[in-house]
Design a protein that fits this description.
This protein has 549 residues and is an alpha/beta fold. The protein folds into two domains: 353 residues, TIM Barrel; 103 residues, no CATH class. The protein has 19 helices and 24 strands. The strands form five sheets. Strands 1, 2, 3, 4, 5, 20, 21, 22 and 23 form a nine-stranded mixed beta sheet that branches. Strands 10-11-12-13-14-18 form a six-stranded parallel beta sheet, with helices on both faces. A four-stranded parallel beta sheet has the order 6-8-9-24. α5 crosses α6, α6 runs parallel beside α7 and α8 runs parallel beside α9. 56% of the residues are buried.
């Protein structure tokens, strides 16, 4: 055995192809050579002296590294605290560029301004395209990052702040940027149709942009139009139209609605011949930038300086208070009690730091203003950099969430936002919660299905290389799980608590979490898309690392 080999001793292998649960599996040793699994052999076959590093699994489950199919760690994945939060959940790869907004292509200015309260600043990207952004992650972080081409960023580069339909020439320019991003290694295209400028993109425009994605076997990933929940039908109908016109495989971001509606709408897509999947986090409440539900898109599409000038104008402010705010009760996931549904998670203005963790209603009461007035005040003081945890009118039970997540086309996606003093607990708890709630507590799915949910399906769906399985030749992104201890600890009241029960994680064969602590190693990389069989996949025009990822 090569001297550089690692051995994971006395583990029970479970992955998305294993079929049977761990109770039927025999303990084994897994031998790793370099970045890949060399062999899986009977326990005790390889002597300790033949390995440079031995981890005693103590009968724990060994799963392939978890894939967060919808993450917002684009700029913060270099932060040690964020890496620790991800790895303590077993997440070894995140898929960024979500909701149509990220740094590339371009200079990153649009994302840094509009999505500052979601993706955070990027310390290593100075401009360019997907190629340069992916390269910024190579050997610079403990986890891997895959990317989607963000359609909103593309539109902002070509159409500026326009709310008009794209012209034929503008569509051609956008198509070229999408094709370039895919050639550079992006795994697909993302849209955020409740955000700007995505809200102004027509179905025709989106279907055209999906054409080069279909041609290379990528995935069209969409934060649907219409606010989800009871408005999900309209969003799914648009996804169906886009997929049918372009031939693209589709993926619905954070698909939250009543369980029966999720199942019915997914069945409808399948019956229409649409290859569709979705991700969903195991919580009822959402999280987003405050400006999205409480200001008109026609305002937030403008540069921040212009929005701030408008909020400072007495006439415009009065118009918003008198005419606009009464209408936000119709936003699909809000209602008349919206001030108590929105909890302040991140406020960039230091003078409002006291309000973190309070609802807008309670914070407004402390200042002696109305909720609408307080909302405008805090947005102006923070230069719009505010995010909120959003309660929904009709909360779902754990059993409801289990019904959604047990769907065979479901994938794990936290929608985790790490920006904020009082963030949503999903950033630090989602993947441990999948295992604890769905497998251990409810028995809604078995361990093999759980491995498929949190790893294997996303690897296959997005072309993430030889990951997602524990077998010879696979990239050794591996997670040891103690089924008796695994649990999410983050709550809405204490959202910064780290998950428990996952103490040892390897990325590309390198220990990055040992005994629950970061090792300091940074073997993570930008994952370039690998062709996906059966979806019209073509060879990439740009070189990829030799491992295909």
């Amino acid at each position: 055995m090569p001297a550089a080999a690692h051995v994971l001793r006395d583990v029970i292998v479970v992955d998305g192809d294993s079929g049977a649960g761990p109770e039927l599996a025999e303990p084994v040793d897994v031998v790793i050579d370099g970045e890949r699994v060399l062999r899986v052999e009977p326990r005790g076959t390889t002597p300790d002296a033949a390995a440079t590093h031995v981890v005693d699994g103590l009968g724990r489950l060994l799963l392939p590294g978890f894939i967060d199919a919808h993450a917002h760690a684009d700029g913060l994945v270099f932060d040690a605290d964020v890496q620790l939060a991800l790895l303590r959940q077993g997440v070894t790869t995140v898929i960024g560029g979500q909701d149509g907004v990220s740094y590339a292509p371009g200079d990153g200015a649009y994302a840094s301004e509009y999505f500052a309260a979601i993706n955070g600043p990027h310390p290593r990207y100075a401009g360019g395209g997907i190629r340069e952004l992916l390269a910024s992650y190579d050997d610079a972080t403990a986890v891997n990052q895959a990317l989607l081409v963000p359609a909103g960023t593309v539109r902002s580069l070509v159409c500026g702040r326009s709310t008009d339909a794209a012209s034929p020439a503008e569509l051609d320019a956008m198509l070229a940027l999408v094709a370039e991003g895919l050639a550079d290694g992006a795994v697909g295209l993302s849209t955020g149709l409740d955000y700007v400028p995505g809200a102004f993109a027509s179905t025709h425009e989106l279907a055209r942009l999906a054409e080069p994605v279909a041609a290379v076997g990528g995935v069209y990933v969409s934060h649907m139009r219409g606010g989800y929940e009871s408005g999900s039908q309209a969003g799914i109908d648009e996804i169906r139209a886009i997929a049918q016109r372009s031939g693209v495989a589709a993926h619905v971001s954070h698909f939250h609605a009543e369980p029966h509606l999720v199942h019915e709408l997914m069945a409808g897509l399948s019956a229409s011949g649409v290859d569709a999947s979705f991700d969903a986090y195991p919580y009822t409440r959402g999280c987003s930038i405050l400006a999205m539900p409480v200001l008109p898109a026609s305002i937030t599409v403008r540069p921040t300086a212009e929005v701030l000038a408008l909020l400072a104008d007495a006439v415009e402010r009065a118009r918003l208070l008198d005419e606009w705010f009464p209408t936000i009760v119709d936003y699909p996931s809000l209602g008349p009690d919206w001030p108590e549904q929105l909890t302040l998670a991140h406020i960039a203005a230091p003078e409002f730091a006291w309000a973190h963790g309070l609802t807008i209603g309670k914070a407004a009461a402390r200042t002696g203003t109305t909720p609408a007035e307080f909302t405008l005040d805090v947005l102006a003081a923070s230069r719009l950099e505010v995010n909120v945890v959003m309660a929904v009118r009709y909360a779902r039970t754990d059993a409801d969430l289990a019904s959604i997540l047990a769907h065979p086309r479901a994938m794990g996606g936290s929608d985790g936002i790490f920006v904020g003093a009082h963030p949503h607990p999903r950033a630090r708890g989602s993947f441990a919660r999948y295992l604890r709630s769905l497998v251990v507590d409810q028995g809604a799915i078995g361990w093999a299905d759980a491995a498929a949910l949190v790893s294997t399906r996303a690897v296959d769906r997005f072309g993430l290389g030889d990951r997602g399985r524990v077998r010879p030749g696979a990239v050794a992104d591996l997670v040891l799980v103690d089924p008796a201890r695994v649990a999410d600890c983050a709550t809405y009241d204490a959202p910064l608590a780290l998950a428990e029960g996952i103490d040892d994680v390897l990325v590309a064969g390198v220990p990055v979490l040992a005994g629950g602590r970061l090792t300091g190693a940074t073997p993570g990389r930008g994952i370039r898309r690998s062709p996906v069989a059966g979806r019209g996949a073509q060879r990439l025009e740009t070189p990829r690392p030799t491992e295909g990822a």
